[in-house]
Amino acid sequence: MSAPSPRRWTALALIATAQFIVIMDTSIIGVALPRIQEDLGFTQESLSWVFNAYVVAFGGLLLLGGRLSDLFGARRLFGAGWLILLVGSLVAGIAPEVWVELTGRAVQGVGAALIAPSALTLLMMLFGHDPKELTKALALYGAAAPAGGTAGVFLGGVITEYLSWPWVFYINIPIALVALLATGPLMPAAEARRGSVDVAGALTVTLGLGAAVYAIVRAPEIGWGSAQTWLVLAAAVVLLGAFVAIQARRREPLMRLSIFRTPNLAAANVTQLLLGGAWIPMWFFLNLYLQQVLGYSAFPSGAALLPMTVLIMIGMIVLAPRTINRFGPKTTTVIGLALLAAGMGWLSLISPDGSFAADVLPASLVAALGMSLAFIPSLGTAISSAPPQEGGLASGIVNTSYQVGSALGLAAMTAVAAANGAAQLGNLPAMTSGFSAAFVGAAGVALVGALLAAATLRSHTSVPADEAATSRK
Fold it and tell me: What distance in Å separates the CA atoms of residue 342 and residue 346, rounded to the nearest whole number?
């Protein structure tokens, strides 16, 4: 066994930064959305694609990113991911119109899909020699995720208020340049392996997810009964069916289908999918309610969400591991999803002349507590359920489940909000009614998740608290 790298803790700082940035890029745009909409001409329905373009590319390509990391070496993929993220951030920042903005966000998602799996592989290479050091490294790595979510919301408000919205993308550029310069000296090299790349599988799953999200987002505008809506949905089903068929036939697939026979793995992945489908719409529409109905500017809007995101960070690092140790992962997951549903149900009571203190703060804190309790044990269960030699595959699958759920859930709740008046800009009662309907729908998704978790998760499988604390948002 080779001697541990003397620079491994410095390298960990860069790996944790990667985790921080990947998560921050999902949250930093929230407060800036109304400004982006105004400047580039997004419709209320299409605005969700500023989020979805990143998430669909990220979630759809995570499995491919992990495979490429195995074949070509984690250090190479880590550097390539930063370079692609830099390019995407530049394009998103200078975008003069809608399609350029969405292209930039998709390119950012591609970069994130290469960074995320290679970062974890590099961490294991640096600290796998010592279980105690590995546990500490994983804990610090895991803490970077809620920190990124928190910083994204707050920084998005500060940047949008005092600079301009393009800087929510430009902030990635100097960080990416430093990461590119530091990757070679700090990160361990690994020999390339022989094997094939399942390009067809990656393309079919990404295009299938994109088609499904596009059809759901566009349906309120062109009609659920239109031929276009159903043709695009049919194409999505065909593409996703093709992905499953490809995985079943290939000798080296992106995702071995038989892994879902592992007890608890499928159930935990469904839980993660529904959790993403509930949480992300709540965060998205809460931003819009604060700015478009209550009239908050960018900085106060970001600051208003800070208590919620701080509670998530504390909950994931401190509360969730303790609750798991006392009640087990299944009970903790069910309680968390039930609290999330209750918090969003409370948020659905918002009014056009409401206030932050009465309508937003208490309900959002209940939802945030539920999110932090549900996320850690369900993710930890999914990863720990797989055999040790397939931990990387299990991690890729569950991260994909969460990102896919986020994209589809936001698309569905955008359709619900539009159908109930959210698209009537300037009409505060109608917009509030639309946002309220989205909160009700998201609460329903969380409640279904709680019921399914209670029915399908096996309580005898334990998730070590140290392992759970390393999970990422």
Answer: 6
Describe the crossing of helices 320-327 and 361-385 by its angle, rounded to 10 degrees: 60
Neighbours of 346 (CB within 10 A): 19
371-404 confidence digits (pLDDT tens): 889 987 887 787 677 665 565 566 667 777 887 7
Tokens of residue 210, six digits: 């994109």
CA angle, corner 218, sides to 213 and 222, nearest 5?
150
d(CA 84, CA 20): 17
pTM score, two decimals?
A: 0.78
Q: Which residue has the tokens 């999505």?
A: 236
Distances, alpha carbon 367 to alpha carbons 16, 305, 422, in Å: 26, 12, 22
Taking each continuous run of H as one helix and of E as one strand, the counts in the chain are: 19, 0
How many angstroms from the chain centroid is the CA of residue 38?
A: 25
Residues 447, 319 contacting (CB under 8 angstroms):
no
Q: Which of 431, 410, 404 is nearest to 419 (CA)?
A: 431
133-173 pLDDT tens trace: 776 776 677 667 666 766 787 788 888 888 889 999 999 99
Residue 212's closest CA among 243, 189, 181, 188? 243
Q: Which two tokens stand for residue 75?
A: 């250090």
